[in-house]
Amino acid sequence: MTSTTVPAAPPAFTAFSPDNWRLALIAGIVISAVAIAALPSGVAFWITGIMMALVAIAATMNAVRRRYYGGLLVAPAIAVLFVMNIFPLLWSLGLSFFAYQSNQQTIRFVGLNNYIKVLTNDLAAKDNWAALTNTAMFVVFTVAAQMVIGFLLALLFSKQFPLRKYLLILVLTPMMLSVVAAGVFFTYYYDPTFGILSYIMREMTGEQFILMDNKAGAVAGIVFADAWMWSPFVMLLVLAGLVSVPKYLYEAAAIDRVSGWRQFRTITFPYIRGLLMLALLFRTIEAFKIADLVILLTKGGNDTMTISYHLIRIANEQNKTSEGAAISYLMLFMVIVLTNLYLYLANRRTQGN
Amino acid sequence: MTAMTKLKGLATVAGFAATLFVGGATVASAEDITLTMAVPDWPPTRIMKKMFDEQYKPASGNKVTLDVDFIPWPDFYTRVNASLTSGEQKYNFAVSDSQWLGAFVEGGYFRKVNDLIDADPELKATMEQMHPAVVAAYSTYPHKTPNYYGFPQFPDVIVTYGRKDVLCNDEEQAAFKAKFNAKLPCTGEEIDDMDWDMFEKIGQFFMRKKGDKLAGQVLDDDFYGIAYQAGKGYDFSSMQINGFIWQYGGNTWDETQIPTGQAEGVVNSEAAVKALDHYLRLIQYMPPVAKTGTMDIFKSDELFREGKVAMNLDWIGLGEASLDPKSSKVSDKLVFGLMPGLRGADGKIIRWSNIGGQPFVLTTWTTDAQIKEAMGFVKWWLSPEIQHQFAAGGGQSAIKSVYEDPKYVTYRPWNRAWAASLDWQKDVWHVPQFFELLTQQQDQFDLAITGKQDAKTTLDNIAKFQQNLLKEAGLIQ
3-state class of B346 per DSSP? Predict the structure, then answer.
């Protein structure tokens, strides 16, 4: 049923009414500002909180009386997003322009110095660049390995064969394991004295096999562990695409005697491309943040330090909060550029077809 | 029931509830005191918690609860650091690694305890009974000044873990004698007299392949001579390398010399380079995992318990597991002695080592009532009777009258090495920059351990970094 009554007109700015959000906003800002300037931070914190709640109530009352129900429904999500994401993001952006350490009580404005330091300082920048190069290397290797293995697994599981269901569950298990469990598992797997890898190699060569004592081996070890965990994720997405291809297309192709490769290229691939791209995007973003497996397997040794682990050490362990914020923002910038570049390319190809 | 009686009934119930509530609240605030504590998860803290729960009766008559967070060692620093710096004020009490003092005192988290010690003559007497090396390492900031921040919870040193069954075997003894014209150390006293050269010989001597014989038995797996910490994580190489450097007459950056003490020229002195070279030379006789940079104190302990090495240098704190047949294949074959030293020209062994172990610290937001109970607990903990019990349960004591008691050495097989080790223990870096100093140094040592760069370059890099960092911080002029 649609109502024909016209919503009440907005109250005048000076009117003292619960739906006068403009007045509430101005009053809230003024009172908070005064409180922050004049009162101890513990008290000012709560006053500011109460003011924010007042403004929120006024805005809600306004939305109810003016019937902005759409906005009202979205508001909780926006509020959570603001409190949990946007506010900390802006806060840390602000911090990156100050000299601040979380274990010291002083703070000082330094402009762009943190950014200059992490990019050019002759002691600090070298490590950052090395970690960044390593991260790029891990992104390329882990994502490539996962895409290929995941894709092949999906092709395999799209066919019917005995025990398929049970094998599928087994293949999906690594994805559900905690990274720490998987990491510990692989440290033993690669251990030269206790590990099965070294055991098998020794049966063949007579020598103990030390995988992780050089960069190539250490990278291979991490990439393998990561691919073991996350290829099933790619497989799952691709499998969904493969299952969605209508059977009659293949039947028609079979009647036309189209070759297997061409069937794949013209029927299968267009159906799964979107999902493949999604998998690529997810895995690239995740790979950019790789730190857990590196910490567990090498502690960054053998030149496997990644930018995320480096960041953890700077921001969380050495308490150089603002320097860490600067690195984070550079990382965020890179990820945004890469993602947009990728989306642009993906869209262009779709339109090109 | 009329409306009136209903109301009366309600009022009675409400009054009763209010009495209960108020009464309950006063009882709770007067008698229930909870001390929240962050500790690393290992035997010395587990024993403490158990002893507290079973035996501790506060003198005040209050009901004191010790709410302990057991945190695994590899995450311990990160977790405590995050809790303190976030301002959540969760812990009243923490077991802190000695090097953290500066960082957390300057941050305003750790409470100075001089007033508490001065106010209590008994506690003051106890602190005076404590071995000075332990007090300097665990309590003082700035290092070696009479400003106290902690009480010893568990003092620790590195000792030599040996396997009697292979070291004392007659065939091995004879073969060793034939090869090196020296007696293979077998008893604790012989291990006490072992220098790095002998340790190296033992390492070389016990390198065996699968199928070779060891103590008369054919090996089903490779066997290695020695193990010690050479890992990249936390302080898992510095704590061993520092000992080498001091024994060679070199030095780490000396914080007691602020602001004139330099890093460049000291940290990378010729003696220090020689010392690091010596440390690196022994790695070839260790299980191959050492070449990957993950041979930390837990790995070498595990290799020893699994029976893969003849000797291991490790903290006493990890020793309990090697005594337990459930977690150790060598539980009935153990012999313990001092950590090796460098034999000087006069034939005497030069000894230095980095002290381990941890103090208790109080945080600044702990209330007076909590402090009172916490101090009651600390006094109880440091009382001779409880220290004896702790030592008998696998802990250690730094109180002179306790560790000099003849009973003390009978508690655990490594206790014979305890008192003799205390005099030559030193500590490093109580300054707030310690974690930056440590991670950079560990990264550099890892490069040397995994064979990526030589000792000279490694120490030059460390010295340059330290000089720069400490100069920026105003600790070097």
Answer: coil
